[in-house]
Amino acid sequence: MVRRILWRLGGLVPLLFVISLLVFFIAQAGPADPVQDVQSQRMSAEQIAQIRAAYGLDLPAWQQYLNWVRDMVTHGGGISLSVRSPVSGIVFPAFVNTLILIAGATVLTVVLGVAIGFVSGIRHGRLIDRIVMLFVQVGSNLPIYWFGLIIIWLTAVRLKWLPAGGMHDLRGDGGTGDLLAHLIAPAFAASLVSMLIIARFVRAAVIESEQSDYIRTYRSQGFGRAAILGKHIGRNILAPIVNITGLTIGSVLTGVVFVETIFSWPGIGSVLLNAIAGADYPVIQSGILVVATSFVLVNLVTDVVLDLLNPRLRHGAA
Amino acid sequence: MASYRRKLLAWAAVAASLVLLLAGCGSSGGSVAGSQPRDGGTLIVGQYQEVTQFDPNRQYSWETWRIDRNIYETLVDEDLSSPTGVPKIVPKLATSWTVSPDATTYTFQLRQGVKFSDGTPFNAQAAQFNVRRFTDPAFQYYDKVSASTMSLVYGDLASFKVLGDYTVQYVFKHPFLDFLRQIPNSGNAVSGFFSPDALKKHGQDGLADHPVGTGPFTFAERVRGDHTTLVRNQDYWGPRPHLDKVIFKPIGDDQSRVAALQTGAVDLISRVPPDSVSTLEKGGFSVPENRGVPQIIYYSYNFANPYLQDKRVRQAIIEAVDRKQLAANIYKGYAEPATSILNQGNEAHDASAVDYPYDPDAAKKLLTDAGYRPGQVKFTILSDTTGQPTAEYIQQALQKIGIDASVQSFEWITYGTRSANLKPDDGLFLGEWGYVAANWVQIAHAYSVGKRDGDKYSDTSAATVQAINAAAYNSDPAKANQLWQAAAQAWAKDATVFPLLSFNRYYAVSSRVGGFVWPQQNHYDLAKVWVAS
């Protein structure tokens, strides 16, 4: 088992190398020029050339790549071109905020997704199932931007239950309760699509299990419904839920940019958006690399958890 | 069947109670802030953009200046306590000043006993350090970036002299009547003084995150993308501001910003979307009206686009658009049409000045004269997302005269980069600027035309440049407005800039806030603002 994990970790090295190459050159290939910004409109060609040289932008691409890798390894990225301060101080705090949002969204995805799917599955074909499935169908097709605004309007402006955005109350001292209150609405918006994917999946799995031969056998032997549901069906669909959760974190990551914008959540999405706008290569490259790395890590963790859940893999190959 | 019906009934009841719940939480008018000013408390401001940086010489954007001007102070200031009238120039870090008759030499007596918030003194040496940073290439702390930004105001500075510990003198190569007006004026090229010690300690790039000035508030922290906090300067030389703390929070999305105000998360927002004005007013928020703020939305032309090198095409574009209707319909009357680059609120503003009147038939004829068939002239209009409805309105108006325009809009910061990297297919691109000072004509002409080789494409541009220079180098205050108006009119003939409109609603304020005034300026003074407890 340990060897399998180490092997997988070793496999990350070439993968991350390829990712870093892609990230670097895609950012380089972007249409905008980092030195052509609002301020530079007032500079002479000579001044612009000086600034270009000062930031090493006149070097050949491969040399810029090596410099960037060196900066990444030594202090987590170079100096931002537009903000002119260290990239690590811009990217990492923002990414931690994004992780908090993703963690919240993942919890909601799993808990609500499983709950909705389970209720719908065991009530298969009944009214509640139909209503739930209607919501699931409609919900899966909602544009996240619009949905976020509706949530703000409903929970903050009309009902005044939740704050309208941001990560904490600027008047208060913060604290965990305050953070959670601010987290609920954006996490819900970010989780909606993946939550409904899980719900549909769980529903189908429950229906399939309930109709399967071995469950019928249990039932015929007089096992209680709760025991069957919890112990057998639950355990059977656990691995696929983990698998799908791992995959949906990826889709949460992509949707999170919109959610962060609407809910003024100070995460990596807005940082990347501004960086792309300003052609701030070091920030774009480091930001995407951090996101890509965490994506790869999530997949790795998912695989390891799946291995742990699967007795055949646990005792077999290793 | 019976149970089915019962369940349906239960669901209906749930749905109905939900609706009632929503309806019950309708508009709630706020109570009016105590009429008596109160010391203490925190004001939270929701801004429509992320700010740039807190280095006065490098920063740009109005939202940044609205923060910066509480940290850094200038030699003279404007009296921003009245909502109407061109703000009066008043002493700030200078107690008095004299201007030479030819308007080239400005001598200031500096205020004594003023300290930067790091404890170091403000005096003639500190002022010299500041000025040398952006004008003297031989200076150890010379900064190229600052020099290029500050050249907007100090490009013609011949010398800066220290005449005593508290006396300094600026000498310009040409008469510069608008210098005093430019000192406290702008979101670009800020003349606020920073502590030389802070620059030495934190370096050229470090000042932005460690701003130290003499102002009524000091910088506490900036969390990028989230907020900037200022706290009251305990050792401020001037009158105590009421507020203890001011927090500025960027909320880029229009609807989210309005929601933040409605829920009390913020107390004041800028750039109110026209659709939200009446909702907010009904909800007990104040959305002050001001028809004299020196702000103008305009389009510049891309002279690299071959169609727009023809003056007749540019003129046709202006004549095709009914700016009155644009302001009345798209902006619901919360904007005024602008028919001259000399914006409302400018010292030389002339409401009767019109570049080219609305006349779609004449526009069509101009295109025919230029040799173009309907549909032949094509280009892209670049805009920020807030300006998209305007761009679409213009797109439709142009379609009616046979010009095929497409619209591309971007979030503001993206727009800044995109419009600095124009492509040949681009035709018009948005600008948002404007000044109280009349030399705005010269600045606008330099940015929209001069730096873009636009002067090549008009047979009257020599006259424009001559008229602008005549006004810029004039030293007689009595003649100034007339000369600038003549310059603007001469420029209008070239059809090399397309003024559109100015907003008359911009801020929305919660009823917890007292003493907020929207003066005829692009920023506001927080000195007399207070919040209810």
TrEMBL record, chain A:
Topology class, membrane: Multi-pass membrane protein
SUPFAM superfamilies registered for this protein in UniProt: MetI-like (SSF161098)
Ranges annotated as spanning the membrane: 90-119, 131-159, 179-202, 241-263, 283-306
Localization annotation: Cell membrane
Primary site of residence: membrane
Annotated ABC transmembrane type-1 domain residues: 95-302
GO CC, any one term: plasma membrane
InterPro entries in the cross-refs: BPD_transp_1_N, MetI-like, MetI-like_sf
Record keyword Phosphoprotein present: no
Any single Pfam family the record assigns to this protein: BPD_transp_1
Keywords: Cell membrane, Membrane, Transmembrane, Transmembrane helix, Transport
PROSITE patterns, per database record: ABC_TM1 (PS50928)
GO biological process: transmembrane transport
Family: Belongs to the binding-protein-dependent transport system permease family.
Protein known as: Peptide/nickel transport system permease protein
Species this chain originates from: Amycolatopsis sulphurea
From TrEMBL, chain B:
Pfam families: SBP_bac_5
Presence of the UniProt keyword Chaperone in the record: no
One GO term (biological process): peptide transport
Source organism: Amycolatopsis sulphurea
GO MF, one annotated term: peptide transmembrane transporter activity
Name under which the protein is recorded: Peptide/nickel transport system substrate-binding protein
GO cellular component terms given for this protein: ATP-binding cassette (ABC) transporter complex; periplasmic space
Signal peptide feature range: 1-33
Superkingdom of the organism of origin: Bacteria
Stretches assigned to the Solute-binding protein family domain: 88-434
Keywords: Signal
SUPFAM superfamilies assigned: Periplasmic binding protein-like II (SSF53850)
